[in-house]
Amino acid sequence: MSFPVTRMRRLRRNATLRTMVREHRLAREDLILPLFVVEGAGVREAIASMPGVFRHSVDQLVLEAKRVADLGVPAVILFGIPDAKDARGSGADAADGIVQRASRAIVESVPALCVITDVCLCEYTDHGHCGLLAGEEVDNDASLERLAQTAVSHARAGASIVAPSDMMDGRVAAIRRELDANGFQDVAILSYAAKYASAFYGPFRDAAKSAPEFGDRRGYQMDPANAREALREMRLDLEEGADMLMIKPALAYLDILAQARREFDVPLAAYHVSGEYSMIKAAGERGWLDADRAMQEAMVSIKRAGADLILTYAAADLAEKL
Ligand code: PBG
Fold first, then answer.
1. Which residues are identified as catalytic?
2. Bridge pairing between strands 132-134 and 114-119
3. Which residues contact 119 (CB under 8 A, 6 or more apart)?
């Protein structure tokens, strides 16, 4: 049936009709807020390249965690920025490391909030790579043990979900094995399964002081040109025991997300990364677009493509407006 019998505009005539036929909605429950934690006390340091995002010391982080939980955001993901770094990333699995202390403090004072931790070595290594080095190469197999120990130390500190973002082969299996061996059968793994070597991580590396000292991450993160390979990565991570899969970044990879949605039954997360966030903020500051509307539109597009969960620096702002 075509025009004039069919008129698509009939159901767009007013806000009530539009709400009734809306296919996808963003909910507070979909959101996960990334938080950066630094040493010290009373620190709430603005990040120049990420307007509205801060580095907090543990005491301030707890206040921020309370605020976002009160807004209805169910989860945060923690990124640690330690003072000291070394070749093996000793700070990553230290019992009193920055993320471990932050996790304990949040679990204690905001028990309803789900604590997710990012498991990676890049914030803790002096060379800035995500694993251990052998010469100028990242040694995959040698890195697995460090990553597994890091995940266990996060579980000990109360994390409910660990999220490995290093892109080493076999890390999900290594982490699952080590968690189970230490009595953490119930700690879930959200795997950064399809993580691309992306220019959109620029502001994060500045925020987390984790840019590699030499070279880049193309030897372990995925080539932006590849789609089939992403499905293989995700399949492998599921076989190794991942409970949830993440695609990262989000907007330039919505096709990957949509394919993953058709292929897999597990919960899918998409990371709307620092560069994606800051582009909208910067354009908004210049008056080139309405940043609030653009942010909401970006989020709903990620849901439409098939995400169950969205990691976004705008989580608190969005929750406030929902
Ligand atoms: C690395 C990690 C990165 C991000 C999350 N975990 C950066 C990288 O791979 O360089 C990026 C997040 C963002 O850009 O918002 N462990």
1. 195, 248
2. unpaired
3. 92, 147, 150, 151, 154, 162, 163, 164, 165, 166, 175
Of ligand 1's listed atoms, the one at least distance from the Cα of 275 is: 14
Domain spanning 26-321, CATH architecture: Alpha-Beta Barrel (3.20)
pLDDT in tens, the chain (322 residues): 899 999 999 999 999 999 999 999 999 999 999 999 999 999 999 999 999 999 999 999 999 999 999 999 999 999 999 999 999 999 999 999 999 999 999 999 999 999 999 999 999 999 999 999 999 999 999 999 999 999 999 999 999 999 999 999 999 999 999 999 999 999 999 999 999 999 999 999 989 888 898 999 999 999 999 999 999 999 999 999 999 999 999 999 999 999 999 999 999 999 999 999 999 999 999 999 999 999 999 999 999 999 999 999 999 999 999 9
Phi first, then psi, for residue 101 (nearest 5°) are -65, -40
Instruction: Find all residues with CB under 8 Å of 322, minimum gap 6, and list them.
Output: 26, 27, 28, 72
What is the rounded distance in angstroms from the CA atom of residue 168 to the CA atom of residue 173?
A: 11
How far away, in angstroms, is 13 Cα from ligand 1 center? 43
Any atom of ligand 1 within 6 Å of the Cβ of 36: no
Q: Which among 86, 204, 215, 205 has a CA at the least distance from the CA of 138?
A: 215
Determine if ligand 1 sits within 6 Å of the CB of residue 118.
yes
The residue whose CA is least distant from atom 8 of ligand 1 is 201
CB 201 near ligand 1, within 6 Å? yes
Considering only CA atoms, which residue is closest to atom 7 of ligand 1? 201
Structure-block tokens of residue 257 = 């997300």
**Peptide bond before 82: cis, by omega within 30 degrees of 0?**
no
Is there an atom of ligand 1 within 6 Å of 68 CB? no
Check: CB of residue 133 under 8 Å from CB of residue 85: no
Q: Report which protein residue has its CA nearest ligand 1's atom 5.
A: 165
